[in-house]
Prior knowledge:
The complex is a heterodimer. Chain A is an alpha+beta fold. Helices cover 40% and strands 19% of the residues of chain A. In chain A, helix 2 packs across helix 4. The relative contact order of chain A is 0.18. The N terminus of chain A is likely disordered. Helices cover 20% and strands 36% of the residues of chain B. The interface between A and B is large, with 80 and 95 residues.
Amino acid sequence: xxxxxxxxxxxxxxxxxxxxxxxxxxxxxxxxxYSYVYMRYRNTNKRYHHESQTPASLHHVRxxxxxxxxxxxxxNRRTPHANNHAVAGSRRSRQGMDAMMGRFQRKVRRAxx
Amino acid sequence: MTExxxxxxxxxxxxxxxxxxxxxxxxxxxxxxxTDIGFDITSSQLRCRFCRYQWQTASVWEKFGIEGGLGQLSxxxxxxxxxxxxxxxxxxxxxxxxxxGAQVVVDTRDATxxxxxxCRNYLSVNQQIDNGVIPDMLLxxxxxxxxxxxxxxxxxxxxxxxxxxxxxxxxxxxNVMGVYLPYMNVDLNAHATLRGRGEHQLRSYTIKRxxxxxxxxxxxVYRITRDFDIHINDLTxxxxxxxxxxxxxHESNNIINAIMPFDMNHAVLYDANYLAGxxxxxxxxxxxxxTPLVETQTKDVTRNLANETVKYYDRGVHWRSQDVDxxxxxxxxxxLPVWLYSYYERKSNGKxxxxxxxxxxxxxxxxxxxxxxxxxxxxxxxxxxVVCTALAIxxxxxx
Lengths: 113, 399
């Protein structure tokens, strides 16, 4: 087996490093349990998903896609400032305990993925 | 087919008069002439309590020929029931009873029906007045109380262990109420142009720098433009100031929001007899106050639909500009049915909070907020934390 030098590719795969993050998740087990039960009882994060559930249709679609450049060795898994899934009209609070727990749950899910 | 009024001035909305066939006063059974009319949930129809004749008011979409054809919608069309609420709005309506001639007063703040104190006939307010209490259309209840109560009981039953002990003692699903809540139903014909940048992942790999390892990605960046027409059908928003507040500072209004959508295609023309046996909340917001929210939600729908055309960009898309040109919009006010259980929680710090458990009166979708026993939950969470910490330490040592 050849020793790896600085910057050398060690592995190329699409899977995440689940095992090494699991112990981090376990350290927050109590808080995760509290937030899960709180959300299940209070459902403060529940809302009508108007962006996907409102009946709507597209017509006469036209598009243009121009390649600009190729970026290499970027550390972001997703493009910065991606907003194609953003929802501005939900009227839900971005502050307070409920929003904090919602954000924590999303981070845990991303870490596990 | 009744066309919207063509009398509007340049730039002014065209009015769709939805109460042209409505009459105030005695609403008689077509078969026997009685005025004691109720609503039969099982058949979702009005029913005469004397001869049991059943009927329902016309579908609002068929009556005015406004089902489908959003591509032809242009300008602004406003239902007469969605007109602006006057500052000095009429609250009290006085009728002359058509049967005995007595003067009957209906206070529309409380109800839109009253019984003549002389001949006992029912009189209804069906023609729209300028206080927003009579909508363009209404969705009758499709679920009866005997269906809603078990749904609420089942929802709460699954959440008993960590529920507040006072709530567990005082909860009774029988205390559910049928309520008609005010909404605005908006149909839109728009043209959208979106410009931005999308990225497609070419490969991902791990590199070593010194002692650390890091996952990195290669990607192609594209400049993308999407241009399309979008037809939005039945964008529904609350038209009550109180229900618009989803922040949840003193009541759980998000619960009522979460039981949407409603099947608006079954909406019928308003008739006060549909409200018999139910309570209602009136609209207190005008179109101007709701327009910013509708425009924002329109852009949300547009962005979501546009995702179908940018699936190639698995790393995401950053839309730098989003132009939505509203070419046609139609606003109709509606009463929509909800079975509602409410619980008033008084907290130890003196604050209070109103919890709701709500059932969609058409689809049966159920959502609710149950007050939490914080002491028990914190105790159990602490025990879970101790166990997880021990597991984490063991895991870290092994790995």
